[in-house]
Amino acid sequence: MQLFLIGCMLLLFVWRFPQMTRTVAASMAISALSIPAYVIYTESTSATMTFDMRHALAELRTYDHFIKYYLPSHTNASGYFFGVIAAMLYKTLDGRDQQSRFRLILQRTLSLCSIVLFGLNAFTMILPSLNINPRMSLFHALYGSLLKASWGWCYGVLFLVLALKSKSLLVDVLSHSCMQCLAKLSYCVYIVQYSVIYGMYTNFPIPIKYGAFNLVILTSALVLLSLLTAFLLHMAVESPVVHLGNKLLKYFAEKETLSNGPQYKQLKNL
């Protein structure tokens, strides 16, 4: 939630001061890379952590690895910040000629980012065998920072590639009305899914057996409950706030246009 608020404030700042766009984008990129590295180095934690959720869901909120590696804001900062940077970059592309030239660069960049993403994540399988001491480890700090940022890079570049494609089956599928509806609910799903998962797993009266059938049933129930809860949150909170925000932005935009108009300047000269 705090990253969402930070992102909104940064976008409002850029909207008010467009000349600061590059500075804000550079600051977000540096923060997404440096903050995770600093936290990993100073806290002497591992670069990343994988764990079996079956051993954590009994008391997820006090599970040490979940608290250290999943909940902190710096873990998800790259996904937010690089996504915002991609959106800002997309807004600067005017004209089909500029977009077509940039599209070729993006396609090559996406291939490179995919290789880096796959390589960094594949390295996690051999990382435990290296037996690197995590205490004040520069290697863990750099690797953990790049690993977290690699997801944000790929998301951002993929977004730009799809946004600049004029005709594509994938673009047509993602542009379908059903997908647009899910996109509107996606952030609310992200907000409520932890509470839904925690509430369901901690209120079962009997131990859960993790067979294929039970896994399908539980996953289906979690998805359905998350979507229903997200829909209620969207209708009660997100949609009214977005509507109010759009009205405020329209009001300030009209006010600024009026203040910079020729009639206002003539009156001011009088």
Automatic annotation (TrEMBL):
Membrane spanning stretches: 110-130, 142-164, 185-204, 210-233
Signal peptide: none
Sorted UniProt keywords: Membrane, Transmembrane, Transmembrane helix
Keyword Membrane tagged: yes
Statement: the UniProt record of this protein carries the keyword Lyase: no
InterPro entries in the record: O2_lipid_transport_reg
Annotated protein name in UniProt: Acyltransferase 3 domain-containing protein
